[in-house]
Amino acid sequence: MMNKSLKTVIETFKYEGDDKAKKNLENVLKSIKSVKVNKRVTSSRRLLTKVKSTSIIHKSNASATYNVSNSPLKAQKVKIDTSKLPDLRHSLNSNLKLLFVGYNPGVQSSIQQHHYAHHSNLFWKLFNQANVLQRVVQKRKKKENGMHQKVFDDDDDDDKYLKTLLSTGCSAIHDFDLIKYDIGFSDLSLRCTVRAEELTSEEKIANIPRLIREINESNAENVVLIGKGIWEVIVKFYKAQLGIKFQLNKDNFQWGQIAESKDKQYNQIIEHVYAQLPKHTTIYAFPSTSGLVASMKFSEKLRLWQEMANNL
């Protein structure tokens, strides 16, 4: 049965502009732990308070509607059979300035056939805010035309499209267009899963030779691994080859550019990995951009991306 004081406040709380009623409601809700309240205000602020049996939903600026239920509504989950979804093809050429390597395609990436396609994935937000495309193009144009030549040609159709990308920002639908600017995409595994954890250890290890071959064939200058787990699999593959007992941990691993550290065994593995790649290749390990992973603040992720972009 509804708490009497709560019922009284609800009956009087008819308008969002009624500050007194709002205050009364908030005071009552603080004292009740067994009722679930979902209060949606028409301003940009949302206040979510856990209450067991009452859901309050504002419909307009002037009125509010109250729905009372003995049991909260539960969202229906639809199970997806990823075995029926297609692999996501890679995007490579023979002279990549930058190659992004993901763990494997998610459901939305497989369905849409574009990399990092889920709306909650932070990849494209980081890509744009770090000015990655601009840095890649500036580097290439200056190399082609000389230091004192302008970066963009206003009469060049390709440059007009490029200007559009730079002004509006890139998204998943542009992934295959970016190959024009020597930016490519691949994955450790091409098979789609809901979560990366669904890939077997054997499957991940078996894909390392293919990934190394792609880096060599694309002559990639910079390889960015989107997810620490990818680097962990690479380390596992090559430490087995070298017969080294080694564990990657917080003491020897650092985000960003993969470079030698104080750990001699780790350095031996790193040297061996780089020996398999073109001499000019640099590897970076970044946190996953998936919306399912939130182990690092966005500002910290962006700093890593900006450092990489500035080093191109």
Automatic annotation (TrEMBL):
Gene3D superfamilies, sorted: Uracil-DNA glycosylase-like domain
Keyword field contains Hydrolase: yes
BP GO annotations: base-excision repair, AP site formation
A molecular function (GO) term: pyrimidine-specific mismatch base pair DNA N-glycosylase activity
Membrane-crossing segments per the record: none
Domain Uracil-DNA glycosylase-like: start-end pairs: 93-307
Domain of life: Eukaryota
Keyword tags: DNA damage, DNA repair, Hydrolase
SUPFAM superfamilies for this protein: Uracil-DNA glycosylase-like (SSF52141)
The name this protein goes by in its record: Uracil-DNA glycosylase-like domain-containing protein
